[in-house]
Structure formats: C-alpha cells, structure tokens
C-alpha cells in the first residue's frame, strides 16, 4: 500500500502503533541522513527503540560487501524477527535495504520511505530488491513487498537537479510503455524542477503499481517496465566497471533512445514515432559519450540480461507511444545498428 504524506506523518505513526514491532532499524545514506532523517525523526511518534544504519551514498555501495556489513550489524544488535527496517533513501537504499531485510533471518518486515524522484515513482514500488554482482546490475535479489510505502514529496526539495532528471527518465518510460496521455503531459514540461514534476508523480506511481499487480514475478507484462533497460543496463554496467558510474536514469534515457530506434528497425513503430520519442528524450538528457565502448563489450553484457531465455536476448520494445511488447528477439544486425545509431547521434 502506498500512502502520500503531506505535512503530517500520522499514517506512518498509526502504522507503527498498530503493528507490534520489537525495534526499528532506519537505513540511510550520508545524504538522506543529513537531509531527510531529521524530518522523519521530528515527526515519528513511537515508543519503540531505534537504531540508525548509515552507508555511503552511491551505486558502488549496492553490493554484497555492504549487504554483509548490514546483516552483521543487525545480528550484533540482536534484531529479531519482529524488527522493522525503514529504508529512507533513493533506489540504492530501497533495493539494498529490501534485500537485506528480506533475507535476514529468512525475512523481516520493511517499509520504504523514498526520497528521490526515481524511488518515489519506481524503485520503492513493486518489491524488486537486490544488489549488483561484480559490475552486473541487480544480479542477486529477491521479490519481496515492503509492508508499506510512505511518500513525502517535500523530500525532493533538497535533491540535486541531475538526480531529479534521472528519476524523470523512469516517468517518461511509464508514459511510453503504458499511457500516451502521461507521456504527452510530461513532454509539456519545459523546465525540470520539483514544482513541475511533482504533479505527475501519482500517475507515474499508479502505472508502475498496476503493472506489478498484474505480474509480480515478471513472467509477462512486468517485462515492459524493462523498456530501455536492456541496452541501458549494459551501458550502466560498463560505466560502473570502468569506475566512472552514471546515474541509472541517464542510462535508461540512453537505452530508451537506442531501443526506440531498434523498435523502428524491427518494424514495430513508425519512423515518425521513433523520431518523436528520441527528439523529446534528447530535450532533457545530454548526449552520453559511449564512443569508446566496444560493440563486443556491450553485447557480452546483453547476453547476461535477466530477461534472456535459451541464450536469446529478449527485448521489451515499444509498439507505439503508450504500448509495449516483450520477449521480442531482434536480429544481431539491428541490435548493433541501434547501438551505432546512438553512438552517431552526436555527429548529427
Ligand atoms: N527495484 C526497482 O524496481 C528499481 C527501479 C528503478 C531503479 N532501481 C535502482 O535504483 C537505483 C537508483 O536509485 P536513485 O536514483 O534513487 O539513486 P540513489 O539511491 O543513489 O540516490 C541518488 C542520490 O541522491 C541522494 N539523495 C537521496 N535523497 C535525497 C534527498 N532527498 N536530498 C538530497 N539528496 C538525496 C543520495 O544520497 C544519492 O547520492 C539504482 O540502483 C537502480 O538500479 C530499482
Ligand atoms: O520493476 C521493474 O520490474 C522494473 O523493471 C523497473 C526498472 O526501472 C528497474 O530499474 C528494475 O530494477 C530493473 O529490473 P531488473 O530486473 O532488470 O534489475
Ligand atoms: Zn530502472
């Protein structure tokens, strides 16, 4: 269940009173510790004891070493099966905290309080938890629903612009795969800022939630939420491997451009639609220089995509603006052409 908190955290406090938790563990990173934790603690009313668990910020922390440290701390602090983990942060915190909670003592309860646009509209919803393995994205994880999701949009006021723009990519994705009018409304936005994106958060969340309700374990329609992620995750992983990480939404924006062109090459959308999609994404996202990335390095990563079956790459591709298919296998020639198309975009 998702609850939007306005100025008052009473629904969170009611939740904490109604359930008989033994103790609370609040997971933060250094930034959400500074910018979001004071608001949470100032509004949280509970007799339960709590501990703060802090990790460094960034995707590089979403790994087994951090998970191990958190499992050890929970053990040292004698967290029992009635303990509650509160994930206060962006997608790194909700993915990592959800993974740690859903595996510790075979699973303790957790709630998500997302603090980035990306985690409000996407990562905190749907119960995909996980960590990266080597540089491969989200390779180890669980499907585990948070008990509750509490959204406090005012947290966005301290979010850096690049992070806001990163989250906006997933909102555009939601419009493109499922809701033409959401896409049309989003592309009306001239200047990305908290005031212009906040009115669209609820619609974007609803799109994600509706898809997840139909297919929690990603057997079918949930794969559409991975549009832009097949190529996007490969590029994100390569950047991570090179010690030069990019933001998830930046990778998704790049991936959506490349995969929109791929959908055109595969005859799924018209050239006009693919151009319209690409031009609009380019309005918000600067060109990502992948000219040094070798085709074979990108395609090697594609071969490990989680959607693959029988050594075949299964793409989730648009069939129009507002509709998406999945398990679509493309010719190798078109895959390479879609990657080259992106590489050459800067020359046009
Ligand atoms: N599970 C899912 O369904 C799902 C969906 C989309 C993305 N993801 C994952 O989410 C991650 C990306 O999430 P993200 O973009 O939120 O990144 P993030 O968690 O790294 O947060 C981005 C940055 O903003 C800072 N920050 C967070 N809230 C802030 C605030 N209110 N004010 C100031 N600074 C703040 C963080 O400390 C961090 O530096 C990726 O690992 C991605 O794979 C998961
Ligand atoms: O919730 C989903 O399903 C998604 O695909 C949402 C994506 O935005 C998100 O990045 C997700 O983590 C990608 O899934 P993965 O299974 O490829 O890691
Ligand atoms: Zn994503």
UniProtKB/TrEMBL annotation:
Keyword annotations from UniProtKB, A to Z: Amino-acid biosynthesis, Aromatic amino acid biosynthesis, Cobalt, Cytoplasm, Lyase, Metal-binding, NAD, Nucleotide-binding, Zinc
Lineage top rank: taxon: Bacteria
GO cellular component: cytoplasm
Functional pathway: Metabolic intermediate biosynthesis; chorismate biosynthesis; chorismate from D-erythrose 4-phosphate and phosphoenolpyruvate: step 2/7
Reactions catalysed, as given in the entry: 7-phospho-2-dehydro-3-deoxy-D-arabino-heptonate = 3-dehydroquinate + phosphate
Cofactor(s) this protein cannot do without: Co(2+); Zn(2+); NAD(+)
Pfam family, one: DHQ_synthase
EC number: 4.2.3.4
One of the GO BP terms on file: aromatic amino acid family biosynthetic process
SUPFAM superfamilies noted in UniProt: Dehydroquinate synthase-like
Subcellular location: Cytoplasm
GO molecular function terms attached to this record: 3-dehydroquinate synthase activity; metal ion binding; nucleotide binding
Keyword Cytoplasm: yes
PANTHER family the UniProt entry points to: 3-DEHYDROQUINATE SYNTHASE (PTHR43622), 3-DEHYDROQUINATE SYNTHASE, CHLOROPLASTIC (PTHR43622:SF7)
Protein name listed in UniProt: 3-dehydroquinate synthase
Organism: Chryseobacterium phosphatilyticum
């Amino acid at each position: 269940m998702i609850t939007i908190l306005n100025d008052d955290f009473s629904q969170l406090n009611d939740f904490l009173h109604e359930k008989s938790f033994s103790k609370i563990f609040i997971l933060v990173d250094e930034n959400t510790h500074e910018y979001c934790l004071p608001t949470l603690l100032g509004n949280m009313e509970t007799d339960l004891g709590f501990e703060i668990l802090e990790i460094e910020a960034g995707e590089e922390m979403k790994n087994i070493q951090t998970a191990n440290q958190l499992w050890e701390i929970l053990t040292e602090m004698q967290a029992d099966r009635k303990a509650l983990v509160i994930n206060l942060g962006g997608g790194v915190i909700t993915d990592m905290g959800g993974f740690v909670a859903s595996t510790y003592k075979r699973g303790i309860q957790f709630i998500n309080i997302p603090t980035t646009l990306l985690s409000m509209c996407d990562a905190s919803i749907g119960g995909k938890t996980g960590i990266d393995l080597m540089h491969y994205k989200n390779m180890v994880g669980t499907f585990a629903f948070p008990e509750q999701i509490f959204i406090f949009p005012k947290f966005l006021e301290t979010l850096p612009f690049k992070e806001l723009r990163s989250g906006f990519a997933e909102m555009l994705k939601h419009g493109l795969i499922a809701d033409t009018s959401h896409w049309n409304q989003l592309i009306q936005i001239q200047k990305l800022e908290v005031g212009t994106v906040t009115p669209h958060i609820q619609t974007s969340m609803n799109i994600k939630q509706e898809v997840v309700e139909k297919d929690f374990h990603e057997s079918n329609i949930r794969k559409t939420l991975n549009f832009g992620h097949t190529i996007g995750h490969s590029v994100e992983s390569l950047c991570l491997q090179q010690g030069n990480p990019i933001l998830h939404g930046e990778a998704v924006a790049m991936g959506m451009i490349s995969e929109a062109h791929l959908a055109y090459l595969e005859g799924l959308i018209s050239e006009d639609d693919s151009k319209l999609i690409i031009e609009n994404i380019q309005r918000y996202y600067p060109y990502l220089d992948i000219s040094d990335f070798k085709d074979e390095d990108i395609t090697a990563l594609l071969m490990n995509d989680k959607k693959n079956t029988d050594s075949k790459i299964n793409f989730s591709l648009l069939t129009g603006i507002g509709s998406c298919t999945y398990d679509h296998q493309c010719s190798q020639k078109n895959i390479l052409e879609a990657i080259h198309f992106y590489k050459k975009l800067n020359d046009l």
